[in-house]
């Protein structure tokens, strides 16, 4: 089981979704940004590092949500979602092809990675 972090990034009441580029695994799927926890690294340190590397942003962690597990054909992951607020103004996409800011009800309109769908379902239950 591989530990992976993701961030539900909130700015002005909207949530950031990023689309994987054509050269990434699962091309053109939408996801919450994040990445693999390195050996000896905490999940909190990982999400801060990954967001800096992938989007060139800084965030403040608001809370951690319950991890979800998903079994892809090539690997099994434990996805650890963080709800964060954006501190930086400019987002620079370094790996992804597009981004969208969505309201909570618009989250289900995109073609998400399966593990991220589980995060969305959990997040929507918390928002009710």
Notes on the structure:
With 128 residues, this protein is of the alpha+beta class. It has a single domain, classed as Nucleoside Triphosphate Pyrophosphohydrolase (Alpha-Beta Complex), CATH 3.90.79.10. It has two helices and eight strands. Strands 1, 2, 3, 4, 5, 6, 7 and 8 form an eight-stranded mixed β-sheet that branches. The longest helix is centred in the last third of the chain and has 14 residues, at 114-127. It is globular and about 35 Å long.
Key words describing this protein structure:
Nucleoside Triphosphate Pyrophosphohydrolase; 128 residues; 2 helices; alpha+beta; 8-stranded mixed beta sheet; single chain
Detail the topology: elements first, then pairings.
Elements: E1 2-11, E2 14-20, E3 30-31, E4 34-36, H1 43-55, E5 59-64, E6 68-71, E7 76-86, E8 96-102, H2 114-127
Parallel strand pairs: 1-7
Antiparallel strand pairs: 1-2, 1-4, 2-3, 2-8, 5-7, 6-7
Short description:
The protein has 128 residues and is of the alpha+beta class. It is 21% helix and 39% strand.
């Amino acid at each position: 089981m591989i530990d992976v972090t993701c961030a539900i990034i909130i700015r002005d009441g909207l949530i950031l979704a990023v689309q994987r580029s054509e050269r990434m695994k699962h091309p053109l799927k939408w996801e919450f940004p994040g990445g693999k926890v390195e050996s000896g690294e905490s999940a909190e340190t990982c999400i801060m590092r990954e967001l800096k590397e992938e989007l060139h942003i800084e965030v403040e962690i608001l809370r951690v949500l319950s991890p979800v597990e998903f079994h892809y054909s090539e690997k099994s992951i434990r996805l650890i979602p963080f709800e964060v607020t954006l501190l930086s103004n400019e987002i620079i996409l370094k790996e992804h092809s597009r981004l969208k800011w969505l309201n909570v009800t618009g989250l289900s309109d995109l073609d998400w990675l399966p593990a991220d769908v589980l995060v969305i379902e959990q997040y929507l239950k918390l928002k009710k």
